[in-house]
Amino acid sequence: MRRFDHRIHLSKDKIAVNILGIILIGIFALMCVMPFYLIIVASITPEASLIRDGYPLIPRGFDLQSYALCLKNPVSILKAYGVTISVTLVGTFLAIFLSTMTGYVLSRQDFPWRNKFSFFFFFTTLFNGGLVPWYILCVRYLGFKNSFLGILLPLMFSVWNMIIAKSFMTGIPAAITESAKIDGANDMVIFLRLIIPLSKPLIATLGLFSALAYWNDWYNCMLYITEENMFTLQYYLQRMLGSAEAMRLVAEKSGIALPSVPLEGMKMAMTVIATGPIVLLYPFVQRYFVKGLTIGAVKG
Amino acid sequence: MGKKAMKKKNSVLKTARKHWMLLLMLLPATVYVVIFSYVPMTGIVLAFKNYQYAGGIYGSPWNGLANFKALMISGKLGMVTRNTLLYNIAFIFLGVIFEMGSAILLNEIISKLFKKVSQSFMFLPYFISWVVAGAIMYNIFNYERGVFNHIITAFGGKPFDLYNTAAAWPAVLILLKVWKQTGYGSVVYLAAITGMDQEMYEAASIDGANEWQKIRYLTIPLLVPTMMVLVLLAIGNIFRGDFGLFYQTVKSSAILTPVTDVIDTYVFRLLINDGNIGVSAAAGLYQSVLCFITITICNNLVKKFNPDYALY
Which pLDDT score is estimated for A103? Predict the structure, then answer.
């Protein structure tokens, strides 16, 4: 009955707005998804066809050779996968822990130095020394060259994520902390046992931010890593796309004569391989995402 | 030691003893920020030094303003500053239109399924790295095989060589940024709309306002405060270029740099390709100071405007 009512009340202007919205949003949404479709189609198109007729709009045949070739020299790709997955897992865990723990302390109203510490952290987002001192410090004094620290540490703590954590945790009733204190629990126990379980949306959001940052990182790898077996996936892809030389090397290693190597198709297959997993993560955290983003986007 | 100082010291010790666990919990992040932010801040002295490997950051000899002079002589600084500024103005302007526009339209659409699917699609570009975005651009605009030229030639047009046409890049880069950012950016506006007082809309309906009038006279004015805050915060970062966007799509192509080089890519190339540490540190310091000034001004404006959203 209600549904019927609803339909009757659809006025002309409401319908017009809806039509306009569906058209405009529809076009934009298609533009957002179309390039992914094109990349996937190109990756399954036979190389000869790619060279002869260009990248297709509609699939011209179905050929997994590009993928097979990407995996034929699996050492570097699997290595890059391994590096990226382990750095993402370890880094995300540490990043969540660090920003929630710091954010919790700064959200405690009974902590008299919270404003001083907040400003101490926040100031770093207002002013920084720039790329050069940072780079020299990392390379010369911290030994980041060809060290996993170079791709793990730079993304491990973000003041913005800490601020998101702080504002989320300010919303958790102080009575929880107070009553636990009366029961004799110390701050760390309160944080781990009581606050963390109440912060699931926060953790999902921060986790997604950090995981995205680690998974998509090529910058730190480009700065610090020169050894091929330590490349992250994105940097591996960047190198592969960037230089014909690298392609030739892959071809040589996989033992295929150069003319028959599907260079173009391989680029596209590799792009799909490097993108896939992080996009697939989205549906699992979508539920929490919008809520957390709203805190994050205004202050970040 | 005076009585007052003694008392102060005692109260500091007392607080520290009382909250030792909280301080311990702050320790890791504090150490991190000291190492990765505060120590590099002292490294800005490099801008006034002739960096030598043996001397390191602090031991190298001073050379006054020589690095800044070299920077001026290169004549690039004005260009990259202008590019950074103009690109960011375009990003902010189009960002507001696309993000606010799609939030308003998404809110109006009745079909839940369409809303959900299209929003997920719009989010996709946010999830990819600039490396992948660069690959996508290559797929579309590549001269010999790109989809774009494929379509153009199919309709009898002449193929277009984007990678050799500097004039087209500003438009392409701005579109790329909007493409990548809109889904994410619209979430804040959407949340602001969802949080609006529904009674106002009902009252407007009773008064005979149609859907267009409600958007024009209710939704948009009510979104203005959110928009102002976001715009001011973005203006605060107007001298910071999106390194990934410019680096991964342009790939330091010499034909394109006059219209695509921003401060960040310029500093990076000075440091990594030219190894010119003093001059790149000077350019970096120039950027940091500009950013600091704009952020401070914008934050003060936000504070006046809506204290809840001020950064500090």
Answer: 94
Cα A191 to Cα A91, A187, A207, distances in angstroms: 20, 6, 18
pLDDT exceeds cutoff 50 at A3: no
Could you say which of B38, B64, B90 is where a domain stops? B64
In this complex, the residue of B39, B43, B147 whose CB is nearest that of residue A38 is: B147
Residues of B in contact with A53 (CB under 8 A): 150
The residue-averaged pLDDT of B274-294 equals: 89
* Domain count for chain A: 2
* Band (B1; pLDDT cuts 50, 70, 90): low
Chosen domain end from B40, B64, B88: B64
Interface contact A21-B106, CB threshold 8 A:
yes
Q: Is 60 exceeded by the pLDDT of residue A296?
A: no
Q: How confident is the model over A93-122, as a mean pLDDT?
A: 93
pTM of the model as a whole: 0.87
The amino acid occupying position A277 is P
Range of the domain at A8: 2-33
Assign residue A122 the CATH number of its domain.
1.10.3720.10
Q: Are residues B44 and B75 in the same domain?
A: no
Q: Are the CB atoms for A299 and A163 separated by under 8 Å? A: yes
Q: What angle do CA A169, A172, A173 make, to 5 degrees?
A: 140
Percent of chain A with pLDDT strictly greater than 90 = 34
For chain B, how many structural domains are there in total?
Answer: 2
Q: Model confidence over B16-55: pLDDT tens digits? A: 888 899 999 999 999 999 999 999 998 888 888 888 878 8
- Lowest mean pLDDT, pick from A11-15, A108-112, A198-202, B307-311: B307-311
Q: Does A271 touch chain B (CB under 8 A)?
A: yes
Residues of A in contact with B253 (CB under 8 A): none
